[in-house]
Write a structure and sequence with these properties.
This protein is an alpha/beta fold. It folds into 2 domains: 4-120, Rossmann fold; 151-359, Orthogonal Bundle (Hypothetical protein af1432), CATH 1.10.3210. 56% of the residues lie in helices and 7% in strands. It has helices spanning 12-22, 34-44, 62-71, 89-97, 110-149, 155-174, 180-198, 206-215, 228-231, 239-246, 248-259, 265-277, 298-312, 324-333, 341-349, 351-359; strands spanning 4-8, 27-31, 48-53, 80-84, 102-105. A 5-stranded parallel beta sheet has the order 2-1-3-4-5, with helices on both faces. Strand 1, helix 1 and strand 2 (27-31) form a beta-alpha-beta unit. The protein is elongated.
Length: 375
């Protein structure tokens, strides 16, 4: 059971302060230098919930401890919070590059330390549970694939169920919003139906809408391939990290392409289009290919709107939720990027149906921070 905080600091006063803050909620272990810390990490790695690490210490400093943890392949087993008075931003960036989860400066504020330690602990507990579910789902999917070869007549039905399972895997790993896939699918179906009625030139029909709705569950499947230290980073991304994060579109396309041979061809085409292009923007300022206008597949255009809107009205680790009305107007105003004007007309006409779907999960809250809807 991971219920222990390891405090690594050569100053006994600093250790005592942290111990006093955390002792009511966690068991405490202490190390006075990096060498002692590495030994304790090796011995107690399965008991540690959070590591609090000073940088400047005798024998072995904090950066070298991080290097050693990477060599031991344990940097992702529990969160590392660097606690230091270091002002050098290059050193801070170096620590993040080695996989730390958070950074706090001395002198400590008791409430802030406890809150951030608990949040990191909770995040990693959820992640471990999600990864366990991911492995279980993977085993189930592997066995189901053999069954699919003998059930050709049921292929479409089984494919939709499997896509929902894969979408659920992504939700559990993300750990922030387990309603996301369900609501994206519901919003996508409503928006597509309005497009079918109001703009017949896009040649949508009930069958296509059903396939696009099912395929929308896999829009973020590529995030399975994004490392935890990037996917769960609490601060802002560096440009390199953001580029890597954006690669989930290409990675999702590649994952689907690898399994497409055994699935319905048209359904898989929608899955690939959505995974690859749901972050493209109508004015060409999206990614990964800067597609413009109707060069963006309609399936991806639909999910781009619904994914963005759902992110706005949902609370995450990094922001409060926007109210329905504010989020709806943000989409129409182009605050989240440019969308197809015809799609915006259908979106405007979908308002009441969207509101009913959003209210199923309870009222949304006012925003206190900016939404990061691009990732």
């Amino acid at each position: 059971m991971r219920d222990t905080v390891l405090i690594v600091d050569d100053q006994s006063t600093n250790r005592d302060i942290l111990k006093e803050i955390l002792k009511s909620d966690y068991k405490i272990m202490e190390a006075v230098n990096g060498v002692e810390a590495v030994n304790m990490l090796s011995q107690y790695r399965e008991e540690i919930a959070v590591l609090l690490l000073d940088l400047v210490m005798p024998k072995m400093g904090g950066v070298d401890v991080l290097k050693k943890m990477n060599e031991m392949k344990i940097i992702d087993e529990f969160p590392v919070m660097v606690c230091t008075g270091e002002d050098n931003l290059d050193v801070v960036d170096q620590c993040f590059s080695y996989g730390i989860s958070d950074f706090i400066r001395k002198p400590y504020e008791s409430d802030m330390v406890l809150q951030r330690v608990k949040k990191l602990d909770s995040l990693y507990k959820s992640r471990r549970e999600s990864n366990d579910k991911l492995r279980k789902f993977a085993r189930v999917l592997q066995s189901q694939n053999k069954v699919l070869e003998q059930q050709a007549k049921q292929q479409k039905i089984d494919n939709v169920n499997l896509m929902d399972s894969l979408g659920t895997i992504v939700e559990y790993r993300n750990t922030e919003n387990h309603e996301h896939i369900r609501r994206v699918k519901a919003f996508t179906k409503v928006l597509a139906e309005h497009m079918m009625k109001e703009f017949p030139e896009y040649k949508l029909d009930d069958e296509k809408i059903g396939q696009i709705t099912a395929a929308s569950a896999l829009h973020d499947i590529g995030k399975i391939m994004i490392p935890d230290n990037i996917l769960f980073k609490p601060g802002k991304y560096t440009s390199e990290e953001f580029d890597y994060m954006k690669s989930h579109t290409i990675r999702g396309y590649d994952i689907i392409a690898q399994i497409a041979d055994n699935w319905d061809k048209e359904l898989m085409e929608y899955c690939k289009e959505i995974a690859r292009s749901h972050h493209e923007k109508y004015d060409g300022r999206g990614y990964p290919e800067n597609l413009k206008g109707d060069d963006i597949p309609m399936a991806a255009q639909l999910v781009s709107v619904t994914d963005c809107f759902e992110a706005l009205i949902s609370e995450s680790l990094y922001k409060k939720a926007y109210t329905f009305d504010v989020a709806f107007q943000m989409i129409l105003n182009g605050d989240c990027g440019a969308f197809n004007p015809k799609l915006m007309e259908a979106f405007r006409n979908s308002r009441e149906e969207f509101k009913a779907i959003a209210s199923e999960s309870g009222p949304v809250e006012d925003a206190m921070e900016e939404a990061n809807v691009e990732v």
